[in-house]
Fold:
Amino acid sequence: MDRTDIELFLSIVEHNSISKAAEILHFSQSTVSYRLKCLEKELNISLFYRRKGQRTSALTKQGELFIPIAKQWQELYKNTEEIQHYPNQLLDVAAISSVSASVLGDVYETVTSDAIKMCLHIQTAYSNVIYNLVEKNKVDIGFVAEPENRRNVLTIPVFSEKYYVVRKTRYPKAMGTVYLEDLQPDKEIFMDWNKEYENWHKEKWGNIASYHVWVDHFPLLQRFLRDEQFWAIIPGSLLPRIYENMQTVQVDNLEGDIPTDRTIYMIKNINPRENRLSTIVNFEKTLKDCLIRIPDVNVLL
Structure:
């Protein structure tokens, strides 16, 4: 099968029109029809019904069954074509957003520097999605806050961190102590750090949402801390980003019925891709070197 023929077939399916597929892929309609007939002859099946005067392209049963095969073939061709361009130190990493915004930002910068020259494919996702990616070996290393028991996945504690309360202020003071009962729930900028934190939050303030706003992305949390009345609880690894992005911020310890420390886990497939083994080792070494320099985390590696 020819790659172009596969692209033509999938384009016809997507647009339900031979003429539209020809226009998009810059072929004449007669060329598309000819190549489609050649593909059907090679497969020994009819992919589309042909009726005189009919402008749309209706799939036969065999044509419908061929769609996933064509997509798999297209993906395999792409992967094969890219092999010649792959660098020696290629790594796929997925992490929850709060970890990418804090600890991993420094790790990414270090491993992609001229000294190491690692090529990273980075994506952000929720913990359960990251587990699925690692389990299928589509990602080499994942970072999650929600541990799961997966048969083919190693779950390794990386670091733990305590929580702090942060607010914007005109005149920051040295880190002090804030009692939870003194915080106004309707002024909270809430971000769900993990399941344990969510359960603690519900026990403390109830199931009914009483916060000012709920966010799932750390930069948004910072944006909503616009004056002194608003507050948020964040894990310690994010303090450097708070100090960096908010010049006038007050950070304090929590006192009272405080949430338990958050633990971040690194996950890996028990049978990693052979050509990624040395790169994984180098990444883990850099990760540990970066972690020990962060004052507000307890390294568990």
About this structure: The chain has three domains: 3-84, 87-159+262-299, 163-255. The first strand starts at residue 90 and ends at 95. The chain has a mean pLDDT of 89. Residues 61-82 form the longest helix (22 residues).
